[in-house]
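Researcher: Re-running this chain for the archive, since the previous output was lost when a drive failed. Same request as before.
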Amino acid sequence: MSRLLKFDRLPNLRDLGGMPAINGKRIREGKLVRSGHLAELSEGDRQKLREMTALIVDLRTDEERSEKPDAAIPGVESVHIPIFDRQVAGITRERSADREAFAAFLSAQEAAERYMNEIYRAFVFNDYSLAQYETFIRLLLERRDGAVLWHCTAGKDRAGVASVILEELLGVPREAIREDYLRTNRCLEGEAEKLTALLAQQSGEAVPAAKASVRALLLAKEEYLDTFYRAVEERFGSFDTYLKDGLHLSQDDIGQVRENYLE
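Model: Regenerated structure tokens:
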């Protein structure tokens, strides 16, 4: 499982280092880091990121970046690779999109879950998203002294799927991938509880109904990950073919990523 790093204002920043990989190897520590947005860093957070990070990859939309721009970290390269080219209510997390999602799903847990499953299918069937994940993986072909850090807003869906793709490529056992995907919930539980209470108060909805719907939108669910894997099998037949025909990665590309990040 990934290792939670202690930062003042980054509750879901985790190092993939130490996770088991192909042929008895492990992911190198301090090289691959996933996170939520970097808009509200303390000065201590900035200093730590400056020391450990070589490249930051922002997977958010232009609207998200405008509303909550990443804090500047001198000396660290930054790349913008939006996984979606438009607002997606409940996942891209612009204010207008959030209002739309929560208004529609606040007392309808099943509808919220169906909606999120559609998003996870889109990660595979949306050609724009597919190309963006390819661009992300290709950044990892280059060797760097520090870590590559990728993030969306919460670090759950877009960044979570980026982590799943990378872990599959590195040969991490699927059980460990699943465990790491779900670990996000422990990191974001506090945020979900606060938002549940706020929305319930504002809307007048019963807390239990609001809580179930908010959790469906804001937290990771095993069902969503299963939907992603089923979509890969439906479109490409296997994950290996997804890497080859969907992300256009050659065996040399895969070998280079493994050489860069496994030990």
